[in-house]
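Complex record, two chains
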Amino acid sequence: VLNVALAVLSGLIWGVGDFAGGKATQNAAVLPVVWVSKLVSLPLLAIYVMATYVPVTPIGLAWGAMAGVAGLVGLVLFYRALSAGAMTVVAPVTGVTSAAIPVVVGLLSGERPSGSRLLGIGCALLAIAMVSMSPSPPGQRRVVSSRLVVEALGAGGGFALFFILLDIAGEAAGGSAGLWPIVGSQLSALVICGLLLLMTRADPWPRRASLGFTMVAGPCDMTANALYLVASRTGDLSVVAPLAALYPVTTVILALIIDNERPHGIQIAGLAFAAAALVLVSGQ
Amino acid sequence: MDTQSLLAFVLLPLVVLATAITFLLLQRARRKKDQGQ
């Protein structure tokens, strides 16, 4: 039950980070927001590492670094696809892909969740798709090109790979990798983002209006990553990943509370499926 | 998981979550105040 609780908390905090990150990128370019968010989360990461200290494991660091690259590729593709429009298609395709691939990989690698848990996993996948959907504004035609679908799938694949590589990283070094995989993922994403900023000669600092949201998004994202790592180390990938991928649920709830956005019918139905998924997966 | 690690994985994330939500609510209050003026 602990791994389920940690995965749910991870999804909850990811959702808050996603919401804050979304707010930050409304007024600033993606790369500076990602770079600064990774940078400001380093002191908190140091506290986590000290609080749960184990000697450095190079293998854990290496797997974590690869996870960081996969996550960053997923993020860039996701924002690229979103900027092309048709969020109604991009968000659910990416969300479901990122959750479904780890489920398949987990099942293929021999995980055998109980019947009720499998049903819960199915509900979680449905919930992710439904909560991410929102009807197009009236009068606006949806343009869904094959390139857009490929980018959305690529983003989902990147996020899925992030989940899978962190799971492998957690099990590396005989399960005693500590939080070093998160250090690896944060540093690799920070370095690559920095290099991209140098190459594009873009201003590395987001606008002042975005700075507060960026400073909230980074620590939330890093905390969620750490919780997911611990959850995946003690629980099945096929169970933990779809629960952590339920983060759009938090985003929708925050949009309701903070922005007074009214959720659509399909999103409310998605919240019900998410609740059902949590109940089913929490049982044995 | 030992007590110290458990505290780190429960207390610290809750502090992060509470801080983030407080910030978002403060932003909302500020925006409402600006709209009211």
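Note: DSSP finds twelve helices and no strands in chain A.
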